[in-house]
Amino acid sequence: MFIDTKKKEINVKIVYYGPALSGKTTNLKVIYAKLNPKFRGDLVTVDTKGERTLYFDFLPIEITLAGGFKVKFHVYTVPGQVFYKASRKLVLKGADGIVFVADSSPERRESNIQIMQELIETLEEQGISLNSIPLVIQYNKRDIPNAMSIDIMNADINHLNNPYFEAIASQEKGVFETLDAIVKLVIKKLTTKTPV
Ligand SMILES: Nc1nc2c(ncn2[C@@H]2O[C@H](COP(=O)(O)OP(=O)(O)O)[C@@H](O)[C@H]2O)c(=O)[nH]1
Ligand SMILES: [Mg+2]
């Protein structure tokens, strides 16, 4: 987080984390498509089939708080494939809030668990405990016929009872509920730490 009191501007980093193909990029694409252009910049998506070493999507969102402070949200996604762990660590660095996008398909159960474990470990390495960082969980792909129950998914990955939302990102469902929740959590933390 970077606060520029002269410009009355707060820069915040939000990271969409989760296993490969859970729908992280889809979330950003929906936000980009539906959000008033007044509040967002250009969406940058990097094709993971390319030859680059660092992969992420990026979307800037800007809101103005009562009192005139501007909050600029720098929203990133990480690549979920196992072999991109180094990229995930880099993108996660300095995050002020995390959205964990889990895949509801039973075949992805172990991947959800594994990458949540990795998230917790990486945060610990960076000196952050899971209960100190704003975290929202999204259970995506609720439309698939054999979706896992929310009880099972909560037991698997939602150890701290964080706020969670069901979503069908490809149908634009649950995307803004999730975004709204993480934005509010981050702002709440921000304003309790630095009264504006
Ligand atoms: N059935 C279903 N497919 C989805 C949903 N959300 C995303 N997808 C599809 O899942 C695939 C991977 O999505 P993507 O956003 O690229 O995943 P990422 O790797 O987490 O960025 C794409 O084909 C999406 O269209 C959903 O809610 N339901
Ligand atoms: Mg992606």
Number of strands: 8
Q: Which ligands, by name, code or SMILES, are bound? A: guanosine-5'-diphosphate, magnesium ion
What's the CATH H-level homologous superfamily? P-loop containing nucleotide triphosphate hydrolases
The CATH topology annotation reads as: Rossmann fold
Q: Major sheet: size, sense and barrel closure?
A: 8 strands, mixed
Explain what this protein looks like in three dimensions:
This protein has helices at residues 24-34, 85-92, 109-125, 150-157, 175-193; strands at 2-4, 9-17, 44-45, 57-64, 70-77, 97-103, 135-140, 164-166. Strands 1, 2, 3, 4, 5, 6, 7 and 8 form an eight-stranded mixed sheet that branches. The chain has 196 residues and is an alpha/beta fold. It has five helices and eight strands; from the N terminus they run ββαβββαβαβαβα. The model has no long low-confidence stretch (mean pLDDT 92). The chain has a single domain, classed as Rossmann fold, CATH 3.40.50. Helix content is 32%, strand content 23%. The chain is globular and about 50 Å long. Bound molecules: guanosine-5'-diphosphate and magnesium ion. Magnesium ion binds next to helix 1. Magnesium ion binds at residues 24-25, 77.
Describe the protein's topology:
Elements: E1 2-4, E2 9-17, H1 24-34, E3 44-45, E4 57-64, E5 70-77, H2 85-92, E6 97-103, H3 109-125, E7 135-140, H4 150-157, E8 164-166, H5 175-193
Bound molecules: guanosine-5'-diphosphate and magnesium ion.
What characteristics describe this protein?
5 helices, globular, binds magnesium ion, alpha/beta, eight-stranded mixed beta sheet, 196 residues, single chain
